Amino acid sequence: MSPLHQAVEDNYLAVRRALGFKLEDHGRLLPGFVDCLEQTGASTVTVEAALAWAVQPQGCQPYRWSQRLSVVRGFARYLHVLDPTAQVPPADLLAYRRRRPTPYLYSQAEITALLAAAGTLTHPLRATTHRTVFGLLAATGMRCGEALRLDRDDVDCDAGLLAIRQTKFNKCRLLPLHPSTVVALRGYALDRDRLCVQCKEPSFFVSTTGTRLAGPARAGGVRHAGRARRVTAPLRVASPAHSRSEAQLRRGDPARLVPRRRRRGRQDAAAVGLPRPHQPRIDLLVSAGRPRAADPGRRTPRPTRGAAAMSALAPTIEAFFTDRLTTQRDASPRTVAAYRDAWRLLLAYVHDRTGKAPSQLDVADIDAALVAAFLTHLEAERGNSVATRNARLSAIRSLFGYAALRHPEHAELIQRVLAIPAKRFDQADVCFLAPDEIDALLVAPDRASWTGRRDHALLLLDVQTGLRVAELTGLVRDDVHLHVGAHVRCHGKGRKDRATPLTAQTVPVLRVWLRERAGDPHEPLFPTRRGGPLSSDAVEWLVAKHAAAAAVRCPSLAGKHVTPHVLRHTAAMQLLQAGVDVSVIALWMGHESVQTTSVYLHADLALKEQALARTAPPTPRPAATVPPDPLLAFLEAL
Of these residues, 131, 242, 324, 568, which one is catalytic? Predict the structure, then answer.
């Protein structure tokens, strides 16, 4: 056994398992990683080797790469204590997060059909076992593994309790049972003892051979039951638990259940091959001498003879965008665009100030003094706000933090840039519209025209739901559901999907608009005249246009700068003034934290007046007159 294999098996895994960790993934993956190290001739863990091994599986989700790298990271931390030459992969390397799909919620009719289909399986014991397991999941919301790990001593039908032992995070709990569930479990126990006389294990649910049920067996039973009853819904073993939880939250009212979202029709993304880690110094996307792209169908242009090659800053910037943001961080297109714009402005400013071409700049050319002068230029000459200035600084600091690992020779300069603080600024109160101002804005569009009806529906939806302008322009016809439990679904900030209910006043307006806006379900809900989606600037322009027209009817609008985000603030303030809890408003608005929603508490003057009315005004006593000291009286008289 090699030293690395011995460090994995006899030291790292054995010690941690003795502390209570299961480390199933570690025991399965680490030996393969060590084999890969030994094949390449490496004697210890390096960041390059760990990254190359983590991205080896092709065709899997990126978060699987992150899981594989996290397994190596734990072993590398342990090994670094014994061998200082072992490198620990950074925590933000391949920082993907798993995107959980929206769970499918079984209706009561689908659960009944599934249980009936399970009873048609060929073997009698298999049929009654699967029917009872599915019914127990739907009635209790247990995890599937918890149900299959039940022993006979864990089921107390007399007391109506289930003892669930050693579940997730090694927890144990008692679960009360409904009387109908107790009757079903008792009936299954009688059928099991009759059909399987010699059980090989003490498990409550057994297979046809008398052993404990396994995962593939239950999955096969679900698929067979789906084919028998032609259940068109996606059959997942965990779905009955979701159905139970949702039914409890909705208090048994099936009319209020939100249906599953239909995904938008999109073209499949092009496949990207990652046979090895990206090396910016070799895999440049631009030529070394002439930084320009090749024309379609032509080869990459060759560098001009005698032209100088790019400096170290150019490949670092390229690797930051292509490797760190796109591959490792999986940043959204808007984040990449914001960082790109910040660096385009900075490089143009440095070029105007120093005369150097952007491709010839080195890391040493952009020091802390130059960055500070650029931030002042944004505020003084470009007229940007302090918030925009801080956003540009965040983009610059992010790239310099990445460059610190690649250019340790410039560590002092990079630390000075990273030490530039964000600028503080005054936070004004949230601007929102009063009820009379909302009415004046909604009647401003001319509903005799097609664009007027579109603008009226858009404004009403935005005021009622509080969607961000990007969420509003990204809506398609299929995102609006106007049946029982009317709501609109959107894909918002932070890559989160959420459903917002619609009021009785909004539903008929959208129903009329959808009838007029006939077309494909995946077409924009609020299109332009040519059928394309509205841009954010177009929405801001039409809101300003209708606000100016409404100011004639409601003069108070003339003193407010009405934007789409003001309509979002208006929706939040309406909820707050109606007595809705702040945590519910945060969920409604799609905020990351309740602290973001607290700004509306500061803007609600009526809430402060109600608090003031509950307090008793103080009754100060007149101060006693103290005669002045003779010396002080003399000095004051001078």
Answer: 568
- Given a contact cutoff of 8 angstroms between Cβ atoms, the answer to whether 200 and 120 are in contact is no
Q: Where are the domains of the chain?
A: 3-82, 108-253, 313-418, 435-613
Q: Please state, for a pLDDT cut of 70, what percent of the chain lies above it.
A: 81
Candidate list 126, 392, 468, 517, residue with the active-site label: 468
**313-418: CATH number:** 1.10.150
Cβ-contact 470, 579 below 8 angstroms: no
Q: Is the pLDDT of residue 294 over 70?
A: no
Confidence of residue 309 (pLDDT cuts 50, 70, 90): low
Phi, psi of 520 (to 5 degrees): -70, 145
Q: Residue 600 catalytic?
A: yes
Average pLDDT on 454-474 reads 93
Quick check: helix, strand or coil at residue 358? Answer: helix
pLDDT of residue 218: 46
From 68, 407, 481, 591, the catalytic residue = 591
Sign of CA dihedral 475, 477, 479, 480: positive
Through-space distance between the first and last CA atoms of the chain, rounded to whole angstroms: 97
pLDDT of residue 384: 92
Least confident of 113-117, 135-139, 323-327, 352-356: 323-327
pLDDT bracket for residue 438 (50, 70, 90) = very high
Distance CA 44, CA 80 (A): 9
Give 627-636 pLDDT, tens digit per residue. Answer: 677 787 777 7
Three-class DSSP category at 391: helix
Q: What count of other Cβ atoms lies within 10 Å of the Cβ of residue 572?
A: 24
For the ranges 87-91, 524-528, 616-620, the one whose mean pLDDT is highest: 524-528
Is 568 one of the catalytic residues? yes
User: DSSP letter at 504?
Assistant: T
Active site residue 227: no
DSSP 3-61: HHHHIIIIIIIHHHHHTT---HHHHHHHHHHHHHHHHHT-SS--HHHHHHHHT-S-SS-
User: What SS3 class is residue 206?
Assistant: strand
- Is 565 one of the annotated active-site residues of the chain? yes
Q: What is the mean pLDDT of residues 270-294?
A: 40
Tokens representing residue 30 in the block? 């680490």
| Domains 108-253 and 435-613 in one fold | yes
How confident is the model at residue 488, as a pLDDT?
93
- In the residue annotation, 456 being an active-site residue is answered as no
Q: Does domain 108-253 have CATH number 3.30.70.890?
A: no
DSSP collapsed to 3 states, 518-543: CCCCCCECCECCCCCECCHHHHHHHH
What CATH number does domain 435-613 carry, 3.75.10.20, 2.70.98.10, 3.40.710.10, 1.10.443.10?
1.10.443.10
Beta strands 173-176; 161-164: pairing state = antiparallel
Residue with tokens 């029709």: 265
Task: Exactly one of 80, 165, 493, 522 is catalytic; name it.
Answer: 493
Contacts 24+ apart (CB under 8 A), 562-567: 562/433, 562/441, 564/462, 564/468, 564/469, 564/472, 564/536, 564/539, 564/540, 565/468, 565/469, 566/431, 566/432, 566/433, 567/433, 567/459, 567/462, 567/463, 567/466, 567/543
Proportion of the chain in helix, strand, coil states, percent, rounded to 5: 55, 5, 40
For residue 151, give the DSSP letter: B
- What is the number of residues in the chain? 638
Mean pLDDT of the chain: 80
The verdict on whether 493 is a catalytic residue reads yes
What pTM, to 2 d.p., does this model score? 0.53
